[in-house]
Input
Amino acid sequence: MFDRKTQNHSIARPTEPSIMLSLALLQLNTKPMLNNATAFAGFSVDALETAKDFYQNTLGLKAEETYMGVLYLHTKGNHPMVVYPKAGHTPASYTVLNFYVDDLEGTVSGLKEKGVRFEQYQDGPIRTDEKDISRDEKGPDMAWFKDPAGNIIALIEK
Output
């Protein structure tokens, strides 16, 4: 409120309990919170049809092309991941997608039969063996491959 006599501004103090409660609740929620928000991940590819074929026919995922021109990848227990075409796509230099599998060796072998080429790491802290699997006592057994757009995907033994 503005007092014309003193030229001072002041905030009116509410007296009704419901107004006081509302103001107290507003003060508690002054920062945006995402702890109850639904989230999803996404990454780009250079060719959507090629990606759809790979994720659906090679990896066995449900790949749904939407009216927006993006691809939804459906995986067990998660919200769909969004795969979108990007002109001038540059593959990610990090793992964009991780899959927990019960039988890593069997999954690697099955994907190799479908033409998937696994990454070999020999330099640095991660090293893969002759079966293209990293076995380290500090973490789970893992293997990596790339999708047709060059994005890195990991398989992790449960």
